Amino acid sequence: MTSGDYNLCIIKPNKASFSETFVQEHIDRLAGHKFVLYGGAFPVYDDEGKFLIKSKLGLLSYLIQKKLFHRQRIKVRTVALKNYLIEKKIDAVFAEYGMVGAMVTEACQLANVPLIIHFHGADVYYHKNIEEFGDLYQQAFKYGSAFIAVSADMATRLQELGAPAGKIYNASCGVSPNSFVQLDITNSERNFLAVGRFVEKKSPQSLVKTFKLVVDKFPDVKLWMVGDGPLFEQTRVLINQLSLRDNITLTGVLKPQQIKDLMKTMRGFVQHSVVAENGDSEGTPVTILEASSSGLPVVSTRHAGIKEAVVDGVTGFLVAEHDIKGMAEKIIQLADSPELAVKMGKAGRKHMMENYDIHDRIKLLDSIIQNSINR
């Protein structure tokens, strides 16, 4: 079988999500003839939105077992996926997220199709996920051909969970150098950008508290926070309580082009990632890669894959998780020196091109898939 001359089934949990650009990159860029399935931890729809389970009786059985009895293992669903893989002559399955990979392992095994699982973050750190899918993970680790981590920390975590070291690959998501080009921030104002869901591991309230200290030093500093989530309203309340409404703008969810346009007016990118109380953690945030590729220095925390994406003191600054004062001091340095921001931004762009170019990342994934098929 020649490179790319195969049928690849990509299975993802969501039909579409603004925060999962990396999934769409895989769909757009991976080699092979692609078939995309979705519908939660286990796929129930094909790429035309049609049910994989064909019979009405089968669908009724599935819904009863899922909705009333909350079963993980549902035979009619597994058989439907197995039949689909055989019917479409699928040569390999590429599962986005560990939970998805674990749930489809049995169907892949029945269809004798190699399984590659791409982990991203919560699937290896969130305590509830590990508890709920732990037994299925062990089956996946035994059958799966390859397990992709997006940071060195995650690769270690996968080994701790039981994945064979010889099947683990460290391949973080990448960034397109043509989509996120070097910006000229020489004459930038004291504007900073944060992009991400308003959830505990992104710690948006820590960022607001940080900017209170920055505003005390530079009253004209501005922060744009892009995204939405369960902590959005709490964050808005905190901004009002700290009298930061003139300094911090909550934009809600924006389209990719709108975010790129915002980047053109920025001095730097900020993100205060932490390990959440429930264990949830980052993989390697794509937004940080995109900001660095655009020539924006990054101020963030020593957390998961961020430690690899940001070279402390060279492409930006890293501080300890929950270190509000330390983060404020680093942002103040950039706010006070556009020259430093330009220098770090250029170094960040170079770091991205040498280590996170999406073309190189896709080549690595393609080779992992091809090797899995050949084996």
Task: Sum up the structure in keywords.
375 residues, alpha/beta, six-stranded parallel sheet, 15 helices, 46% helix, globular
Structural summary, described in words:
With 375 residues, the protein is an alpha/beta fold. Helices cover 46% and strands 14% of the residues. It has 15 helices and twelve strands. The chain has helices at residues 21-29, 56-68, 75-87, 98-111, 122-125, 127-143, 152-161, 204-217, 232-241, 256-263, 286-293, 306-309, 324-336, 338-355, 358-374, and strands at residues 7-12, 33-38, 92-96, 115-118, 146-149, 168-170, 191-195, 222-226, 248-252, 268-270, 298-301, 316-319. The strands form two sheets. It has a six-stranded parallel beta sheet with strand order 2-1-3-4-5-6, with helices on both faces. Helix 9 links the parallel strand 8 and strand 9. Helix 4 runs parallel beside helix 6. The radius of gyration is 22 Å and the shape is globular. The model has no long low-confidence stretch (mean pLDDT 95).
Mean pLDDT value: 95
Shape: globular
Question: What fraction strand?
Answer: 5-15%
Strand order of the largest sheet: 2-1-3-4-5-6
Output the number of helix runs: 15
Largest pleated sheet: 6 strands, parallel
Going by helix content, strand content and strand pairing, the class is alpha/beta
Task: State the low-pLDDT regions, or none.
Answer: none
Helix content: 40-55%
Oligomer: single chain
Task: State the end-to-end CA separation.
Answer: 12 Å
